[in-house]
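Troubleshooting: if your tokenizer reports a length mismatch, compare your output against this known-good record of 93 residues.
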Amino acid sequence: MELGHLQRVIEDTYGERDRGRGTPATVAWIAEEVGELAQAVRKGTHEERVHEFSDVLAWVVSLANQTGVDLDAAMERYAHGCPKCASVPCACP
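Known-good structure output:
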């Protein structure tokens, strides 16, 4: 699934509710989900990691939607490798 499509799905599914909750609460949800992801990476199963990665990504997408950020456009800075040195792999010191 491409990021733009994911943004539309998340918007259609949760947009109104997430905007009602607001960006501060969304940031708090992201932080909580990142904590759950960290736990799953350290001690969880592959299935738990997949679940937590999807939750983190969904909340990041929701925040992008709430703040008017097009994630396809945002990720263009990584389209050709490292945004600082433009190398693949990164050659930054």
